[in-house]
């Protein structure tokens, strides 16, 4: 479980296909290697992945994760290449501050940036969600985009917008996000359950 508050921006060191359509992804990180246990969960641009190896290269820590077929199909992981930057968040520990919203790291689909507007104090991104997920996105509700917890500003059909403050632009990959880019989308768990309850009530 995560909160959508990015604690590091990693860099893809390598992506290597393996047996059974797995991809072994190795990521450079600012995390202390001693603090990354094998089997630990790390959200990588919103995708919860399990650490299978760690190491150091030229004074930099790296960790490796395996992405399976479903992950490659539903998320942007299959498009990651050497040098790409990814938002990172360690999993929650008991007693941690819940500064964003509860994020599972289970990406629902891919949203596309259709516009970026840079303003004096922030940037507005307008995105198009997959049609089957748009109904879960509500004005002033929460979404996670590439692992970043954000509040929805406006909604219009399958499109929605978010406002990004300068701090978030500087400490996440959103600073370089541009029109045409794809991002991992996780809808709010509460919205998912609310929709299910409504459906169950309508179809007893």
Short description:
By secondary structure, the protein is mainly beta. The protein contains 4 helices and 12 strands; from the N terminus they run βββββαβββαβββαβα. The protein has 2 domains: 8-90, Elongation Factor Tu (Ef-tu), domain 3 (Beta Barrel); 109-202, Elongation Factor Tu (Ef-tu), domain 3.
Labels describing this entry:
mainly beta, 204 residues, 2 domains, Elongation Factor Tu (Ef-tu), domain 3, 6-stranded antiparallel barrel, 6-stranded antiparallel β-barrel
Layout: helices, strands, pairs:
Blueprint: E1 8-17, E2 23-29, E3 41-44, E4 47-57, E5 60-67, H1 69-74, E6 85-90, E7 109-118, E8 123-128, H2 131-134, E9 142-145, E10 148-156, E11 159-164, H3 166-171, E12 182-187, H4 189-202
Antiparallel strand pairs: 1-2, 1-6, 2-5, 3-4, 3-6, 4-5, 7-8, 7-12, 8-11, 9-10, 9-12, 10-11
Overview of this structure, please?
By secondary structure, the chain is mainly beta. The chain has 2 domains: 8-90, Elongation Factor Tu (Ef-tu), domain 3; 109-202, Elongation Factor Tu (Ef-tu), domain 3. The chain is built from 4 helices and 12 strands; from the N terminus they run E-E-E-E-E-H-E-E-E-H-E-E-E-H-E-H. The protein has helices at 69-74, 131-134, 166-171, 189-202, and strands at 8-17, 23-29, 41-44, 47-57, 60-67, 85-90, 109-118, 123-128, 142-145, 148-156, 159-164, 182-187. A 6-stranded antiparallel beta barrel has the order 1-2-5-4-3-6. A 6-stranded antiparallel barrel has the order 7-8-11-10-9-12. The mean pLDDT is 92.
